[in-house]
Amino acid sequence: MRVAVAFALVVVGCAPTIKPLPRVADELPPLPVEEVSIITTPPPAGEPAGAQPRVTLNASRADARVLIDALAQIAGVSVVMDSSVRGTVAVRFENLPAIEALHAVIDAAGLAVERGVEKPWPESVFYQPPVNVNTAPAGVISARFGVSGKLAEWIIKSRPVLFITDPER
Question: Which of 63, 79, 85, 150 has the fewest beta carbons under 10 Å from its own?
Answer without folding.
Answer: 150
